[in-house]
Design goal:
This protein has helices spanning 4-15, 72-83, 113-130, 194-212, 228-240, 245-251, 305-311, 344-349, 400-405, and strands at 21-36, 43-58, 61-67, 134-152, 158-175, 178-188, 215-216, 220-226, 270-273, 290-294, 297-298, 319-320, 329-330, 334-337, 353-360, 364-365, 371-383, 386-392, 394-399, 407-423, 426-446. The protein is α+β, with helices and mostly antiparallel strands. Strands 3-2-1-4-5-6 form a 6-stranded antiparallel beta sheet. It has a 5-stranded mixed barrel with strand order 8-15-17-19-21. Strands 12-13 form a two-stranded antiparallel sheet.
């Protein structure tokens, strides 16, 4: 890992020819992945990467460079080259990638593989015990530790050590001639306990059994309730991405609305939360609690340094990178949808017929037009105010503005879920906190097998 004194020296070299803005960003990362597929021994992989990026802005032009090597003299020479403006100004780094190799020095010790295998055993045993129809189980455990150092001409110096642990489990169940997978995942900054792993395995088993017995989904324009996980994912993808400043720069506003205008019903309030006291983004700026939508009215946007300047908006501390290879981009950290009132049963109680989507799969959203398409990973029909049979093949689709106008109720209890956000070439861990949401109408299509 680059020494702080060397980072300050590199910054001085960048600024030697004059700079409107300059920064040195270094990150070293090590990952342990342990995977187990049904009927196969566990596989273990160690991956490591470390490097430094240099950024210089001068006279409205931007130069950037990313080096995987950390040799001091090579870094000094590269800083001098960037300061001279050698080469073509760029706004992109080299293509993203992860170099396989020995984890960089100076990182915390990763969990031992034997301990991880015990977690996978606990998850597998719980899945098999949950239902006799479970006939297969697989899991992937991933632990990533990173050390970040950033110095620049704006923002505080960032010195940070992070650890993220994720466990992904999937169970296979058979109901007659039908076989189906059920999946569950958890991601936490700390470790995962054996009890948590067992609970994850049992949930994956229940999801697999439900999907194996599912019937074809109804289609048409129907009332729909999104469970907390589905609601958090929908709002993150369809609303938060549209209010990231780089999307605003491309399209000028969410689906033709203007700041201060109505973009949803009064049932929706969305904000970015501060992940921890004193948290800084990857540009050294404090992460601010930012209201994006308040009772349906467009109130704010997620910004980093460059987008805030271009749009004349406050900086929200949303500048994030997924490695030293990437430029900062405005992305959410922890997104929260405000709770309303009432229980899930009350949300369902007034519906004669509709769809309850407990979980959504990976979908597609155009942040400029607001069109969306989300497959329902786990869904059931609603009949006379009660949960009915499980269904498969449902797809939610349409325009976000129309769906949000039909949002009539938010539940009183929120749940927190972790995810991995992929947009604009970045892959970032995110967390959503959301209640169940009731839509008076939404278009449900049936996926063709």
């Amino acid at each position: 890992m680059v020494d702080p004194a060397l980072a300050e020296e590199l910054l001085a070299l960048l600024c030697s020819g004059g700079a409107d803005y300059a920064e040195v960003f270094a990150r070293a990362e090590a990952t342990l992945t342990l995977a187990r597929e049904p009927g196969a021994p566990a596989s273990v992989e160690h991956r490591g990467e470390g490097g430094v990026s240099l950024v210089l802005e001068r006279g409205g032009r931007l130069w950037s460079s990313a080096l995987g090597a950390e040799e001091p003299e090579a870094l000094r020479e590269e800083a001098r080259r960037v300061a001279r403006g050698t080469g073509i100004p760029t706004v992109q780094y080299p293509p993203h990638g992860r170099a396989r190799g020995i984890p960089p020095a100076g990182l915390p010790r990763l969990t031992d593989a034997a301990g991880v295998e015990r977690l996978l055993d606990a998850a597998a045993e719980a899945a098999r015990a949950a239902d006799p129809r479970v006939c297969g189980f697989g899991a992937v455990y991933r632990e990533t530790t990173s050390v970040t150092l950033r110095v620049g001409t704006e923002g505080a110096t960032v010195r940070r050590a992070d650890r993220l642990t994720t466990l992904y489990s999937r169970a296979l169940a058979k109901e007659g001639a039908v076989a189906a997978w059920g999946t569950r995942a958890v991601g936490e900054p700390g470790g995962i306990t054996a009890d948590a792993a067992a609970g994850l395995g049992a949930e994956a088993a229940r999801a697999a059994c439900q999907r194996a017995e599912a019937r074809p989904a109804p289609a048409g324009t129907l009332p729909a309730v999104l469970g907390p996980q589905a609601a958090g994912l929908f709002v993150h993808e369809a609303v938060a991405h549209a209010l990231e400043a780089d999307a605003l720069l491309e399209g000028g506003g969410p689906w033709g609305a203007a700041p201060g205008g109505r973009m949803a019903s009064e049932a929706l309030t969305v904000a970015q939360l501060v992940p921890a006291p004193g948290a800084l983004d990857d540009e050294g700026w404090p992460v601010a609690e930012s209201v994006l939508v308040e009772t349906g009215v467009w109130k704010g946007a997620l910004t980093d340094r460059r987008s805030a300047l271009r749009l004349s908006l406050p900086r929200t501390g949303s500048g994030r990178r997924d490695s030293f290879r990437s430029l900062p981009a405005p992305r959410s950290h922890h997104l929260a949808v405000s709770a309303g009132r009432g229980s899930l049963q009350e949300l369902l109680g007034g519906l004669e017929f509709g769809l309850y989507a407990a979980r959504l799969g990976s979908g597609s959203v155009d942040p400029l037009t607001g069109t969306f398409r989300f497959p329902v990973a786990e869904g059931v029909v609603i009949r006379e105010g009660a949960v009915g049979e499980a269904v498969r093949g449902a797809v939610l689709q349409g325009r976000t503005s129309e769906a949000l106008a039909a949002l009539v109720w938010a539940g009183g209890r929120r749940e927190r879920h972790a995810g991995l956000c992929r947009r604009g070439g970045l892959s970032l861990p995110v967390w959503d906190l959301a209640p169940a949401l009731l839509f008076e109408r939404i278009e449900v299509a049936r996926e063709v097998p």
